[in-house]
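Module 6 notes. Inverse folding takes a fixed backbone as the condition and produces residue identities as the prediction. Think of it as a translation problem where the source language is geometry and the target language is the twenty amino acids. Below is one complete input and output pair. Work through it position by position during the lab.
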């Protein structure tokens, strides 16, 4: 598997240059540098950063970078520029350093006689299997510029879909976190002040006040610490479970059955499946290869297993719609539309129509979810804080009454 190397070397003009290259070994880096008339003086593997550091500082190639590069590359190919020249120009123009070094490596491989798809296949961190297979189909069919534009459109729509889902998940999470923090601050810092005051007054306190004071004492003491540790432990346990194949399958199955979010997740899965498979088939990728790639990029183990079962059935001579219906993963409407697409010979067009329909469905689901969650969270926060305030003021009202 390719990794990133940092290098420095002397050019034919005697100047010292340095940079980064994605390659399989140091010898591969040295070979690429010699092709560029650079004598290497130092080649070292790039130090790996932590996951958080890498994510926060953009230590990987983002989908947006791939879209921009793909569009520009398609325009250059359509204008008649040679493949190597287009790669050379773009490797010096792209802002992402990892992508720039990867393109320089790919340019060297293409100059050495490799096809563009084979050169891309050496860099799975940057170009996934779907991208590589579509490029291979475009090269063999002589329509590389068309395929590249289609790829860029697909990635843009996939990014849009991902953004919608993130928005739907993040909003209630943020509001819920703020609500919990506000209530915790009131219970830990505000309520104890009232408790001390009530202790000096003496007398019997109302039941709501006793309840709130008991919860406050629990959270301000070891109870709060235990709850915090349990929450952290749950997050760690969930992360560890998600690292295993069986764990992913179980958690993905549960996510599809969630009361509100499960419907949204299923609609996203349908949109992604149909969009990916439709794009691959319309680009000339064989249906068995297309199903295999679609399964790997599904993002949900339940969907992945179902698609792989469908692939096995198709390899035995069955239609696509028949095993899809038996899997019971996708809605009946999707299965019927795919059956119609197969019978009419327009499967790719039908898959694209289904994807467009479910993109709109995801839009509506996200809008409805946001509209429903917002008042629920506001009522929860307002009701809880209101109950705490009333419970704390009840003894004061009682005291005022006794004084009168």
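Target side of the pair, the amino acids:
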């Amino acid at each position: 598997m390719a990794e990133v190397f940092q290098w420095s070397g002397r050019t034919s003009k005697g100047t010292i240059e340095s940079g980064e290259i994605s390659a399989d070994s140091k010898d591969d880096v040295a070979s690429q540098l010699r092709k560029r008339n650079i004598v290497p003086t130092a080649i070292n593997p790039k130090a790996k950063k932590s996951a958080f550091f890498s994510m926060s500082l953009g230590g990987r190639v983002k989908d947006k970078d791939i879209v921009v590069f793909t569009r520009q590359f398609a325009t250059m190919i359509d204008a008649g520029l040679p493949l190597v020249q287009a790669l050379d120009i773009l490797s010096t123009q792209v802002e992402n350093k990892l992508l720039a070094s990867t393109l320089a490596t790919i340019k060297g491989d293409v100059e050495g006689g490799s096809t563009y798809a084979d050169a891309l296949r050496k860099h799975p961190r940057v170009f996934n299997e779907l991208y590589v297979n579509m490029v291979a189909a475009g090269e063999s069919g002589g329509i590389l510029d068309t395929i590249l534009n289609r790829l860029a459109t697909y990635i843009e729509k996939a990014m849009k879909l991902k953004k919608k889902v993130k928005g739907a998940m993040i909003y209630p999470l943020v509001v819920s976190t703020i609500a919990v923090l506000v209530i915790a601050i009131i219970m830990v810092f505000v309520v104890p002040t009232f408790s001390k005051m009530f202790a000096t007054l003496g007398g019997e306190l109302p039941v709501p006040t006793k309840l709130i004071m008991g919860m406050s004492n629990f959270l301000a003491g070891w109870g709060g610490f235990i709850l915090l540790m349990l929450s952290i432990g749950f997050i760690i346990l969930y992360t560890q479970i998600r690292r295993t194949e069986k764990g992913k399958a179980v958690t993905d199955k549960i996510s599809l059955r969630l009361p509100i979010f499960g419907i949204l997740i299923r609609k996203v899965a349908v949109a992604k499946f149909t969009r990916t498979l439709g794009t691959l088939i319309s680009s000339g990728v064989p249906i068995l290869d297309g199903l295999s790639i679609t399964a790997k990029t599904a993002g949900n183990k339940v969907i992945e297993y179902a698609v792989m079962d469908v692939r096995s059935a198709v390899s035995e001579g069955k239609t696509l719609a028949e095993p899809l219906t038996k899997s019971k993963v996708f809605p009946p409407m999707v299965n019927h539309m795919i059956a119609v697409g197969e019978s009419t010979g327009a499967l790719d067009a039908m898959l694209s129509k289904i994807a467009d329909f479910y993109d709109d469905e995801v839009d509506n689901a996200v809008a409805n979810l946001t509209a429903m969650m917002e008042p629920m969270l506001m009522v929860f926060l307002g009701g809880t804080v209101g109950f705490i305030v009333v419970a704390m003021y009840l003894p004061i009202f009682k005291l005022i009454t006794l004084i009168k």
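Reference fact for the lab report: The chain has 17 helices and three strands.
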